[in-house]
Design brief:
mainly alpha; single chain
Length: 208
């Protein structure tokens, strides 16, 4: 069995329910503080569970406003943590093509997906609905485009390796998982309760 590669951590960055950076997060951990608290906003009163570990610092309060608007919420958190880690490492001068941020999330981008769908609906209401294109409605084309953005060929051997070392779900579930939770997708394709792409109502998560 081959040995795992050596990984050198040169800088740390974090934005968590305990703090907006590594120092505040670590101090809260040492003090035994919990990041979980009640959701007191009006929109949360209809939720079956009203406690959550929300971010201690809203990324929109840290990032420049125009830049924040171009990023999904998961990307906002990643950029903030990456900037701190970069500074903690001494802000080394490295070629851009050697840099990357890996976000271990299964629903990263879902808020942007839903926001863009709402924007599509506003545009259709304002400009009118076009006819079918290749037999598909605007809503169907929207969700198909999302699915195609994840499309790739994966050998079974590679897939078996990925599920043991990669925190991300395989592409099939990055598509089927979120879309099976979205009522607008079911309406667009005429899916009914009990269909494979319609999750039972008691198992549909609330994204807030």
């Amino acid at each position: 069995m081959s040995e795992l590669p050596t990984v050198l951590v040169t800088g740390l960055g974090a934005t968590t329910p305990l703090g907006g950076d590594v120092a505040s997060t670590w101090s809260a951990l040492l003090a035994g503080k919990s990041g979980v608290g009640p959701l007191v906003d009006d929109w949360a009163q209809e939720l079956p569970v009203r406690i959550a570990a929300t971010a201690a610092v809203d990324p929109r309060d840290v990032l420049e406003r125009v830049r924040a608007r171009t990023l999904d919420r998961s990307q906002q958190f990643a950029v903030i943590a990456a900037h701190e880690a970069w500074a903690d490492a001494g802000a080394p001068d490295v070629e851009p093509e050697r840099l990357a941020v890996v976000i271990a999330t299964g629903i990263g981008g879902i808020l942007t997906l839903l926001t863009a769908y709402d924007a599509l609906q506003r545009a259709l209401a304002r400009n009118g609905r076009p006819g079918l294109i290749e037999g598909y409605t605007p809503e169907q084309r929207y969700f198909l485009s999302y699915a195609q953005s994840w499309r790739q060929h994966t050998r079974p051997e590679q897939l078996r390796t990925r599920v043991t070392v990669d925190p991300h779900a395989p592409e099939q579930w990055r598509v089927n998982g979120p879309l099976s939770n979205i009522a607008a997708f079911a309406r667009a394709f005429g899916c009914k309760d009990g269909d494979p792409m319609v999750r039972p109502k008691d198992k549909v998560p609330t994204i807030w």
